[in-house]
Amino acid sequence: MSNEHDDRELEMLEDRLHDLRAAASDVRLQSYRESDQDDVDTVVHYLWNLRLSEALYPILAIFEVTLRNQIHNALAQRYGTEEWFDKQGVLHERERDEIEQSKEALRRNDKPVNANRIVAQMNLGFWCALLQDAYEDRFWEPEGGKLLRAVFPYAPDGSHSRNEFWMVCNHSRVLRNRVAHYRPVFNQPDLAEVHAGTVAVIGWMSRSMADLVTLTDRFDEVWEHGENQARGRLGELWQAPSSVSD
Q: In this model, does residue 26 exceed pLDDT 50?
């Protein structure tokens, strides 16, 4: 009887694996397979990655919204207008083109072309680009770095340059894109460091947003225990064999 039961469990497992390969695609699942790993271990990584992405999403959303509005508000204050991006000599050609593309997209969708909608529509890459070297002379160096302090008012005094801010923000941008496009993050060697950097930058920009991070951030728990939890839950549901060990 025991052998028959084991055979049924293995048959059920094979059915589930076959179904998942069709639904998720073998190519995608291979991104979660490490050397000398069986199919169940690969699925465990896939499930763990989903849970990590879920845990990261609120923090990345808070980061993107906060960075966007901090830079917009600071530049609107400097140039005396919500439409600072339309002023001559403010943006370089690439970013000007992105603004125009945003306006055109709003027009195509019969939406008002105003500052609030344009700012909300610009992607994270646009805002990170404004922290690059190309804007050092225009934005960040004048008045002893006054604009940088306006964007990051709670950063430790004198401990971070504009380039360091850009590097942290760019790492967060890359992670955000990986999560948004359902790519593996579980095997990124600097994942915990990038998460910590993103949380720190949010706190440097806004204490209120930092409070929201405190209320929503589950990353550390999922990072530390998520793989074993995923393995246990999957084993219970699929009756995975005991040979799949921690």
A: yes
